[in-house]
């Protein structure tokens, strides 16, 4: 297509009075073709921000989906009664002794790749399949982690089921989101006397704050495919950042709804008298919460809660979202009296979630029984492997520092039998021959994990979390933090609580909401009701485009010199829209104007570059990469409406202050909107 930008061709030509030209993706120095696609009209050394008014859509209900690595759920609130948050119905099935208000993130598809079940139903159905039949069914578990770990994420990225079969990741996610859509809408309609249309529902999907733009766009595309909203109504779907949602909810907490670990003195994980484990208060609070869950409606404060009353303007706090797959850290400052939030440092974190403990357990099994056997067992007896992971999960939840007794984990009979057939000797013999002395064999057919063994499984993951918080607290923007909020499912672990209390209990107050596993879900509902509550965010990366600047001898390198039509240009200069860790207020925009290079051009494509540093000068510098494109579809200009077609101005507006980067454009001549899209999945 002639209108598209081609490699080794100039992307911009000089506008009147302008000294910058957008260049294509590297390699693009220093020869350029004669055919140009767009020209700049408003170049500027730094982004100029303009406050953009926000459009308010009268939604009737907000439905939030907390799509987690290990567990997921939904909640909703009607806009006429925003203080009441309704949790989803209790799930059938579940683990004994565990209060489940969320469902395991497990998906079961038929051999024909059709949806069968999700959550406990998927897990139980897969368990009941004949071992031979199970090899043909597709069972996905903890699949959200793939999106975080894939560096070249696209719409064609595949996920691998437990049995090794592969399927497009976006279809897997769409199946799960479609399940939540159907269940949530049915429950909303059951509680609403009004007839709800599709446009009456605002949807919110949570993602880790450390996810980059491609992963966020991936979730949006999956939501479109699942039918949550139409691509023609993107404002109907919000992407919420998980620690940010938790922070929004924590503003509403009353004192009786939190456990303050800092107020509990301890020594080596014990009470001062040495008689009781330090986590007794948390277990007591969790029991109170379990009794309260007969009611699925939670009432939140209309203003800010009592805990916030203790905070003064300018006080800083950290929210550590410790989930199944990732740990996300965000630093906020509350702005009184309006109660809005300001992000002080860009979100950080990594893959330090509870899944790390599961992987350590699997590594220990590989050490004892051999990695080849474990891989073979997972492939040939996938349902039994799932049973084993469920058994470990149940015991993992009960692990606590200072626990004197061992934990028993039942091995499925098929594991014991398969091992004997595979190796020719018993599981007990394998344990005796291994050097893993902290794991014993019970005559009742169980693995006995000593406290030392469980501590060894937890320690690497917990150490990474603590080290990351320590590093964050040393940043100048973060010093003086008064509160540390622990949220997310992993925050229920006494092992993690103990480590965090030991490391930070003397420097700040450590607060855990009683309903710690539901904090993000409730906060996501509140975010959907008022997306303006976070007023200022920090940009996680530097974003910009490549331009041509006037070549200055002695300042610009000679290999960047381009001579075109007698003028000397420096190629590949990074023209920044925003810089990493730059504060960007909600509603602020960056504006650029472009003009088509040829009459009749119907499309403009502009490459976007990003970098994790703020000192990049050229788009060819180390660490700078092409991360996306902006596409502008140009309508046919009216007859005689633009005498100088080459000077047709397309004014582009980019917004960096929301959870997603957004772009809009308008044709200045006709004042008509230009279809504009920003794509991070095409690379």
Automatic annotation (TrEMBL):
<dbReference type="GO" id="GO:0002040">
    <property type="term" value="P:sprouting angiogenesis"/>
</dbReference>
<protein>
    <submittedName>
        <fullName>Heat shock protein 12B</fullName>
    </submittedName>
</protein>
<feature type="region of interest" description="Disordered">
    <location>
        <begin position="1"/>
        <end position="28"/>
    </location>
</feature>
<dbReference type="InterPro" id="IPR043129">
    <property type="entry name" value="ATPase_NBD"/>
</dbReference>
